[in-house]
Amino acid sequence: MKKVEVLTRIEKAGVVAVVRESTSKQAFEAAKAVVKGGIKGIEVTFSVPQADQVITDLKKEYQNDTGVTIGAGTVLDPITARLAIMAGAEFIVSPSFDPTTAELCNLYQIPYMPGCMTITEMQQAMKSGADVVKLFPANHFTPQIIKAAKAPLPQVNIMPTGGINLENLKEWKKAGAIMVGVGGNLFKGVAKEDYDSVTKTAQEYIEVWQTN
Question: Has 192 been annotated as catalytic?
Fold first, then answer.
């Protein structure tokens, strides 16, 4: 799939579920639960045991659903990025910007979304081909940071991640977030294996995001 098509699908999804569970089984089931709830962007972090296998399994699970986009998160280096891409990851997310990872993603034409906190970091990421920068951790800022960043960098696409919840989701979208990454607040039911509650929470996030 072409890079631009993947980016379009993630942007259409709006909410990217950051799957960071303690077992590969929990991660797989948690991802399925949020997809059932309508969240079609899935980021499997490499803090999950056998994360590459989880990505492969999810790709197989949704091979006939063109709306679901599976990516990899907590990618710290090009070796991990290549492992994720070989497993089927359609986009790569990092907690910080790494130029060698950016180069590898460009080589494979895979969208790279590095974590950035400053204008300098955002500029460096964009120069290295990042189409979307992850504002991380977003809970260190208010949504007004997006407007502030877009003053000198009007072309920057920002995905806030960290501390995004149902109360502030709409505010981040109104401020100009192209999409958001949501983790812990979405998966509170996983510890008790209450995946129905995860699905319900996912539905609430999508409902808020899609409401004008």
Answer: no
